[in-house]
Amino acid sequence: MIPGGQLMYTTDIENYPGFPEAVSGPDLMERMKAQAVRFGTRVVSENIVKTDFSSHPLKLTTSAGDEIEAHTVVVASGARANWLGLHNEERLARSGGGVSACAVCDGALPFFRNKTLVVVGGGDTAMEEATYLTKYASEVIIVHRRDAFRASKVMSERVLANPKIRVEWNSQVVDVLGADFITGVQIKNVSTDTTKTVECGGLFIAIGHTPNTDFVKGQLKLEESGYVATPSPWRTATSVNGVFAAGDVMDSYYRQAITAAGTGCMAALEAERWLAHHNIGDAQPPVLETADAPSTMDRRFAMRDE
């Protein structure tokens, strides 16, 4: 996992409050880190590779083999975009060269305006992103590997009726062209086995995201899609007492920087209240109730699936 998550791939963030002139993803992440450190946060630059939430204190093991014990844990490991795995793709995404995995995040940037933009995917997300991009693009081309979308009927019909959108059926993007900035893509028709070059000013990959939850599998209840389950609506509590989740690791719907920050605040407040309820401060922790015997406060904050 990259510290800073998906925003590290974003050159200009224009939809985060407080930055009227936009801010780069890496710069915003550095500012957030500096603010946290200023208030006493200790940053450990290691990945968590193993967790044991079966009893308190909660245990986490780092990639260096160190074990960390905690009264509460906020899982905020995010999600990663699924990429095509092509040469140039990740490089141009990192450098702001016109490749993105989030049209809503980047599509309104001046860089993409009045250009031909390519969207890869066939689900609802791809339909939403293609429709959104028509506000700014001269043309939007959807590249889909099958002869029909898997998106909902309503979303599919809306896209097919849009005069600014055309579809390359039974096709795949097999190469991304351009040195510093994208200049086009190579598209292969899997039915005819022919390849052609399409000039474009942007490529948006919309083939889903994968939550970074490998290190909590078997410890927390997960949704079928792999996201951390938060049993109670508008809460960040998970299936284990004292463990909370925030950001894209528990949100497969909004996936925005501001909503991730909002759930981060919610998780911090819930963790603080959980600690206060158990009278946990600087003193040694008392023996805590297990997940099998939740207290009234535990039920109130829906920290387990009942």
Characterize this entry briefly.
The protein is α/β, with parallel strands linked by helices.
How would a textbook summarize the main sheet? Answer: 5 strands, parallel
CATH structural class of the largest domain: Alpha Beta
Q: What is the subunit arrangement here? A: single chain
CATH homologous superfamily descriptor of the largest domain: FAD/NAD(P)-binding domain
User: Can you tell me the residue ranges where pLDDT is under 50 for at least 5 consecutive residues?
Assistant: 283-306
Give the second-level CATH assignment, the architecture of the largest domain: 3-Layer(bba) Sandwich
Q: What coarse outline follows from CA principal-axis ratios?
A: elongated
Radius of gyration: 22 Å
Q: Helix- and strand-based class?
A: alpha/beta
Mean pLDDT: 89
How many structural units, i.e. domains?
Answer: 2
Quickly count the helices: 7
Please count the beta strands (DSSP E, at least 2 residues each).
15
